[in-house]
Design brief:
By secondary structure, this protein is mainly beta. It has strands spanning 16-25, 33-42, 56-68, 71-81, 88-99, 104-118, 124-143, 146-155, 163-171.
Length: 179
Amino acid sequence: LSDDSLINKSNGLSGLHLGSKVFLFNDKGIFPKGTLLYGVSLPILGSKDFRPSYSAAEIMFLFLNRITPFYEFEYNLGVQWDGNTKNAAYAYALNNEFEINRKMHCFIELYGYFYENSGKDDRFNGSFVNDHRVNGGIWYLFNQGLQLDLSGGVGLSKVSPDYYFAIGLSNRLKLGKRN
């Protein structure tokens, strides 16, 4: 006998997320290329189970070293607020990306979060919950500005989601003149 009343299964789309990447500096020798990623998630649209209760935000520093003409190693550090608690989550990622051809790439990534825990007064109590995951996928570049992403992954920690699948479409906007 088992009690399935404790199991909560949900399906649906996530809420509206707006973000951007800003180029910071180019790679030179062993020094990486650097980019700033920032975004906000709004508690509108999407399935109620997957959108934040409040506005959420993220700030990430993205670094990239090209090792060979077809292999890049990427590593990221940042902080996020999920829109459901006041506490921050400190994020990391270690990504291996391989170029299949000029338009198609694949990747495998280890990433995770260190979530701040709260005490009774809703303040950070000095401890963290660890959430580690692995994912992989492919992306296809239709032209200089339009990209399709397909990915999926699994959780490695007790608090991590069991699995996920994602599809994304990115459009790069050109602002101003640039060679």
